Amino acid sequence: MKRLFLSLLLLVAVLQCAIAQSDKPATISVYPAVKDATGLINRISEKLLPYQKHITSKSLIKFMSRVPHTYTGDKGRTTEEDKDSYLVNYTYFYVAGTNQSKVQSLLDLAREKHLYDTTRYRFLFSSGESALEPSALYVIDLKNPYIIPSLSFTDVRFSKGSYGDSVFKISLTHGAADAFTNLTYHEINNLILFLVDGKLLTSPCVRSVISTKTLELSLGFREEEGQKLLPHLKAAVVSDSAYTPLYRPQYVLGDTLTYRVSFPQSKGTAQRSHTFQLIPRLVNDSITRMECVVDSIALTIDEFFKGNKEYKDMANYFVYELRKNHFMIETDQSSHFVVPMLKDLPALSHALETYLTTHSAVVKVMGLSGHNDLKQVAERLAEAWDGFFEQGYIESILPELNVMTQIDNRFSNQQTQGTCYLYLEDKIAEYTITKMDDGLVITLTVKADKNGGAGKYTYSIDQRGLIRQLRYEAIANAKVPRNAVSPTFRVPSSYLIERIR
């Protein structure tokens, strides 16, 4: 009986251990791929030659290909593309399934002999569908300043993606979201590798800055693997309750906030300014939607249409209808992306159609006399203006459409200085936060880089979390890189926005 009792206790202990093991929290880490993997592997390959004879006489680099081998019988087909000269500036390589064990042995030998900085670089293989399938070989830099050794998240779900693939949907903490945005900003056009407990999960390519609190990681069609990982990831979920916004704007739906924006006076011209009203239409933790009503739009019509009265008259009418149309400003609170748009694009199209119908001289000058569908022409004209939002033109005349909600709920009450991604500049900004008796002063400074020149935004926030004043100043004499993107339209060198009621 005693033996039976001890056996039962042992069985319970084993079951408890198994349950604990199944729920062991997993760690997600994120690393960028080494961009010059070719150079690194070439150097290792040369240093290995005196030591590797017991493994193979073939150099390490000879096992690498830029395109997958096609398996044909016992050997993989190699092509001219597999030559060393072709492997230039490539972040990963393919290794035939039949060669993977040899390559791994060579890499292990290189590590043992310290033929590369083993504290900095690590090699990782992707998992092929079968032993005969080629695997991708990656190199990660463990000392990259933007790595995320442990990605913290508040929720994880496993589902099917739009293409039928298996997808992890991960909700990040605020700190993790900031770190991930910073990483993607510095690694555009590079691969980033997601590791779970040190094993490669997926390796997407960063095409642009990713500023979001929700990540979708595709596992391809490895559903079984995803199901096994899910309980471990769920066990790693943390609370983000420690996050408290620095301030929450106390917007009142339907209320009106009135501001004046002033631009520097140009030589020989009067100072340009206009007023605008912000009317909150939707406010919650996910999205802010504001209606923006401007009293004037300072389009320099004469510069565009010199000597052409018909075009100038139509442009003036166009601007009149544009102002009357109003704008909507939608801000995603998770990514802080601001999307300005026309409130009623069809109404603008209809107004332009009416104008074209009643002004035959304009139709003639535009070369549209033989065009039967003026409605279609009007729609295209309206859509062309709508496209100015994406081209940056709108920022030069109506900066308020981008800057007024950019930093709402952006910072926590524990933040005083640091860096953050500033969407309206597409840059990393340095920020400082100063608490005053009557509110806050938040300063964001961006440096000159490939996306343009340097500038400084100074926000004065009142005790209700509403903008009292915003001053933008371009930083003169900032050195812009040669590969900088030239803006389609010039953004003002400075402006001042002040609340007047």
Strand order of the largest sheet: 17-16-15-14-13-23-22-21-20-19-18
C-alpha-based Rg, rounded = 30 Å
Number of domains: 3
Q: Provide a count of the helices.
A: 12
Helix content: 25-40%
Strand tally is 23
Q: Beta-sheet strand percentage?
A: 25-35%
| Oligomeric category | single chain
Structural class: alpha+beta
* Average pLDDT rating: 81
Shape, per Cα inertia axes: elongated
Largest sheet: 11 strands, antiparallel
Termini Cα gap: 86 Å
- Unreliable runs: 69-89, 482-490
Keywords: Signal
Signal peptide: 1-20
Structural description of this entry:
The protein is elongated. Residues 69-89 and 482-490 have low confidence and may be disordered. α7 (309-325) packs antiparallel against α8. By secondary structure, it is an alpha+beta fold. The longest helix is centred in the N-terminal third of the chain and has 21 residues, at 2-22. It folds into three domains: 31-141, no CATH class; 146-234, Gyrase A, domain 2; 257-499, no CATH class. The strands form five sheets. The protein has an eleven-stranded antiparallel β-sheet with strand order 17-16-15-14-13-23-22-21-20-19-18. Strands 1, 9, 10 and 11 form a four-stranded antiparallel β-sheet that branches. A three-stranded antiparallel β-sheet has the order 4-6-5. The chain has helices at residues 2-22, 37-48, 100-112, 174-186, 223-234, 301-304, 309-325, 345-358, 360-365, 374-391, 393-397, 400-403; strands at 28-32, 70-72, 75-77, 92-95, 121-125, 135-141, 153-160, 166-172, 190-196, 199-202, 205-206, 214-218, 257-262, 273-283, 287-294, 327-332, 338-342, 417-422, 427-436, 439-446, 455-462, 467-474, 494-499.
